[in-house]
């Protein structure tokens, strides 16, 4: 379990990185980019940013490329907004967990729709 301070830093970075991405990267070409989670090393020198991108496959590729291209600028803007001894080096990772969860929910819905309509319920004897 991470320390309370580390949790607070993670949440602060998550909020600020999301805000910087919202301001710096246009939604039209790159899809809607969300910051799902931020993992921070214990020494605060590096941070892994788990992102989700809503849009077409083309927009996802473009959005991920934009994030990596503008990584240093995003890192600098976050460093100005969040005062820490070290500004963590950001590493972006595409988080497909939301898409995977949606696929599972879709499969469950399909199973419920195709299931038997005449389900028998146990009768009280």
Automatic annotation (TrEMBL):
Claim: Cytoplasm is one of the keywords in the record: yes
Chief location category: cytoplasm
Record's subcellular location: Cytoplasm
GO terms of molecular function: ribosomal small subunit binding
Cellular component terms per the entry's GO annotation: cytosol
Biological process (GO), any one: maturation of SSU-rRNA
Entries under InterPro entries matching the protein: KH_dom-like_a/b (IPR015946), RbfA (IPR000238), RbfA_dom_sf (IPR023799), Ribosome-bd_factorA_CS (IPR020053)
Cell membrane keyword on record: no
Keywords (A to Z) from UniProt: Cytoplasm, Ribosome biogenesis
Gene3D superfamilies according to UniProt: 3.30.300.20
A matching Pfam family: RBFA
Subunit structure: Monomer. Binds 30S ribosomal subunits, but not 50S ribosomal subunits or 70S ribosomes.
PANTHER family, alphabetized: RIBOSOME-BINDING FACTOR A, CHLOROPLASTIC-RELATED
Family designation: Belongs to the RbfA family.
Entry function: One of several proteins that assist in the late maturation steps of the functional core of the 30S ribosomal subunit. Associates with free 30S ribosomal subunits (but not with 30S subunits that are part of 70S ribosomes or polysomes). Required for efficient processing of 16S rRNA. May interact with the 5'-terminal helix region of 16S rRNA.
Name by which UniProt lists this protein: Ribosome-binding factor A
Organism: Pedosphaera parvula (strain Ellin514)
Gene that encodes the chain: rbfA
